[in-house]
Amino acid sequence: MEGLTPLDEHVRQLLNRYMQDLFGKEDVVLQAVRQDSLAQGLPAIQIEPESGRILQFLLRAIGARRVVEIGTLGGYSGIWLARALPEDGCLISLEVDPERAEFARAAFERAGLGDRTQVRLGHALDSLPALSAEGPFDAMFIDADKRNYPAYLSWALDNVRVGGLIMAHNAFWYGAVVQADRLPDSDVQGLLAFNQRIAEDPRLMGVIIPVGDGIAAALRVQ
Ligand code: SAH
Ligand code: MG
Questions:
Q1: Closest atom, ligand 1, to C-alpha of 71
Q2: 0.85 exceeded by pTM
Q3: How many CA atoms lie within 13 A of 62 on its CB side?
Q4: Segment 174-186, tens digit of pLDDT
């Protein structure tokens, strides 16, 4: 529109803050989990609050009850996810680091979500095969080792029901997906392959929601 300047970084930051204030408000539990995980020495790489709200929105839209997460960290994203589930719903979250898994279990308890969450310790590629027996699942949220996103997507295609959702954090990988020549490592390659497959696989209707570091979301249409 005339008189408006194009979106620069500053305006983008203000808009993110605006979205956070309107839709991504952390309650005391989420705030405490974020702060305590920092104090505990866990890396500050949780999903952004406004991304948490988007994930909740998507789960509620499909009536999700059973969800798998890969990459628990301290349970921050898991709290957002589990809060979108009904009382008899279940979030199974996979984490390779025992200290993080323990921290997350306590965080889920503190959030009053102990009854509908499970943290399973181990490398996700080792845990997933046995998890198939507990499926099919309504949704999956991928947020761990980027190089394995394509493998996680393959599992999701076999274990997420038609009408279900496959979602992933870091679809932009902090901009690396459009600067892959500068960072040609297996993590970037993993994300490029993942994004391309959710764009092209006829069983999926994929998008990237440009919130935070990018939320990839694909609806299983067939
Ligand atoms: N989803 C979390 C952040 C996850 S960070 C949140 O938003 O709050 C990524 C996590 O994945 C780390 O805790 C890391 O230990 C774990 N991880 C990395 N590779 C993994 C693997 N192969 N299997 C399971 N967990 C893994
Ligand atoms: Mg992430």
A1: 11
A2: yes
A3: 26
A4: 999 998 787 779 9
